[in-house]
Amino acid sequence: MIPWAGSTTTPNLRGVNLVRTYGDGTARRAALRDVSVDLFPGQIVLLMGPSGSGKSTLLAILSGLLEPDTGQVLADDDGTLRDVWAMTDQEREAYRRRHTGFIFQGYNLFPALTARQQLEIVLKWGEGADSADARRRADEMLDRLGLEKNKNKKPAQLSGGEKQRVAIGRALVKNPSFMFADEPTSALDWENGQKVIELLRDAAHQRGASVLCVSHDHRILPFVDVYYHLEDGHLERRPLPTD
Fold it and tell me: Which Gene3D superfamilies has this protein been placed in (predicted)?
């Protein structure tokens, strides 16, 4: 692995003593049990574990989408480390818009927008990019994802794998500081899945993003820098395979 040239020993995102439970009474279940994790600029981190182990819960908490029962999420916000869950709703929304990209399992595309427009709206709304710049950057990203022939198609006209790639492009196009990917290769064949993982790795190694990827796909392991396993609410760092 070639690390980002600006690699640092200082984390830019910290989850501290995170607890999250679901249900009530005898049905109460702990998804996260006092979990702590640090993410660093220039690293791609893989989080694995059984279905229902809390992986998506941890991803949502760290990205500012789901509030923990207790614990902190400390994130670099324009040079200042701030607790994401101590922000007001407006501050947290602004932070997420400026700094984070999220790849959802369910795509979450706008039905009325074309593939190109899905990316353009992120750049215009999130960065204030003008129309020409937004179109250029959207087209470049779609080309990299092999979607050059699908730019003017709406979600109903796309296959599941194509929709997944549009969703990935939407998250990557604004070059976020933090990238959160929930099963990014689940709807893709390995040729396209590998392209996606390489893009996520480039976001880390070339642009210094902190990338956290949740997956069941062991083929991703050779592409990542750090590997965690989450099970029964407990997080464990594990060594990467050597072969």
Answer: P-loop containing nucleotide triphosphate hydrolases
Any domain includes 90? yes
Domain CATH for 126: 3.40.50.300
Residue 7 domain-assigned? no
Which helix (H) or strand (E) segment holds residue 212: the answer is: strand 210-214
Per-residue pLDDT, 125? 85
User: Which stretch of 9-13, 34-38, 39-43, 141-145 has the lowest confidence by average pLDDT?
Assistant: 9-13
CA distance 226 to 229: 10
Tell me how far apart the alpha carbons of residues 19 and 207 are, in angstroms, rounded to a whole number.
31
Q: Which residues pair with 3 in a beta bridge?
A: none
d(CA 57, CA 32): 8
**pLDDT level of residue 199 (50, 70, 90 thresholds):** confident
Residue 141 lies inside a defined structural domain of this protein: yes
Distance CA(27)–CA(4), nearest Å, equals 45
pTM for the whole structure: 0.87
